[in-house]
Amino acid sequence: MEELDVNQCTDTLDNQDSARTLRYALDIVSDGIWDWRIRSNHVSRSPGWYTMLGYDPNSLPENVATWHEVIHPDDFPRVMEGFNAYVEGRSDRYAEEYRCRCRDGSYLWISDHGRFVEFDGEGRATRMIGAHRNIHERKLAELALQQKNLELLELNQRLEALVEARTEALRRANEALVEQAAVALRLSEIDPLTQIANRRRFEQQLHAEWQRLQRHGHVCSLMMFDLDHFKRINDSLGHPAGDRVLVAVAEVVRRRLREEDCFARWGGEEFIVLLPETGSDEARELAERLRLSLRRADVSLPVQLTASFAVTEMHAGEDLMALLRRLDDALYRAKRQRDCIVTC
């Protein structure tokens, strides 16, 4: 019996030594430890825990309510959610970071880790221990970095928005410039009164077709016509009436041409047509149809409108100046007769 008592005393001393050793170890690796006896709701806290928060050791009630009261109100819901998740078995660990109120009213960032260490015969937890650690400086640096990253993100977003806005503005400006350039180019190639090609545009097309003829032998014809007695119209009816006639003539001829044909105002009441892939016979037939159509170009005139035509086909080896002189000479002969077609 005495031997049994000695063994029991030895076990008790060993348990006390183990508990004391555990407490020392926890004090080394943490700034404060807590021990919660769940059935009695008693919470014992190490002197380091009180010192960390600026309190005298054992100066606060040793219950869970003390813990609730020192947690920052903004952190409380999150901490309770994490704690209850562990207690109720929805999480396999309890570990939170939050602010604790110090004695002077300031708040200190701490990390809190805990776990169950004792259970009853039915497996229900009866004891939980945990450790607090002062992470204030690290947390402030972390939060400062997060804030800086947030500011940098917002700055980057503003810069991206600014770049996007500038890019969009530049795109619209470029589109406007392209459109203006296209309009300018069109105006430089269009006769402002009749809205058909001007002499500059016609000469470009003529040169291109002349090169096709020299290189590949593609046939091409030209037709030039002049309105008869146009000066009389201007003199008797006025220039607005003359302009109306020129517009009407351009519209009649344009409707009877192909898309690939180039129809231009050559000057005054003279017009010229470039007819790619068209021989002289086909060109003359077209000229005849146009000559008859022009008589009905402006029915408001007191006299019938007529025109004189010259038609020719490009010749390989002939330069453009010679070609145009030949066409102009033929038109001169046609104008002497009026309302006719001369082929050269």
Automatic annotation (TrEMBL):
<keyword id="KW-0808">Transferase</keyword>
<feature type="domain" description="PAC">
    <location>
        <begin position="94"/>
        <end position="147"/>
    </location>
</feature>
<dbReference type="InterPro" id="IPR000700">
    <property type="entry name" value="PAS-assoc_C"/>
</dbReference>
<feature type="domain" description="PAS">
    <location>
        <begin position="18"/>
        <end position="90"/>
    </location>
</feature>
<dbReference type="InterPro" id="IPR013655">
    <property type="entry name" value="PAS_fold_3"/>
</dbReference>
<dbReference type="InterPro" id="IPR000014">
    <property type="entry name" value="PAS"/>
</dbReference>
<dbReference type="InterPro" id="IPR050469">
    <property type="entry name" value="Diguanylate_Cyclase"/>
</dbReference>
<dbReference type="InterPro" id="IPR035965">
    <property type="entry name" value="PAS-like_dom_sf"/>
</dbReference>
<dbReference type="GO" id="GO:0052621">
    <property type="term" value="F:diguanylate cyclase activity"/>
</dbReference>
<dbReference type="Pfam" id="PF00990">
    <property type="entry name" value="GGDEF"/>
</dbReference>
<protein>
    <recommendedName>
        <fullName>diguanylate cyclase</fullName>
        <ecNumber>2.7.7.65</ecNumber>
    </recommendedName>
</protein>
<keyword id="KW-0175">Coiled coil</keyword>
<dbReference type="InterPro" id="IPR043128">
    <property type="entry name" value="Rev_trsase/Diguanyl_cyclase"/>
</dbReference>
<dbReference type="InterPro" id="IPR001610">
    <property type="entry name" value="PAC"/>
</dbReference>
<dbReference type="InterPro" id="IPR029787">
    <property type="entry name" value="Nucleotide_cyclase"/>
</dbReference>
<feature type="domain" description="GGDEF">
    <location>
        <begin position="218"/>
        <end position="344"/>
    </location>
</feature>
<feature type="coiled-coil region">
    <location>
        <begin position="136"/>
        <end position="176"/>
    </location>
</feature>
<keyword id="KW-0548">Nucleotidyltransferase</keyword>
<dbReference type="Pfam" id="PF08447">
    <property type="entry name" value="PAS_3"/>
</dbReference>
<dbReference type="InterPro" id="IPR000160">
    <property type="entry name" value="GGDEF_dom"/>
</dbReference>
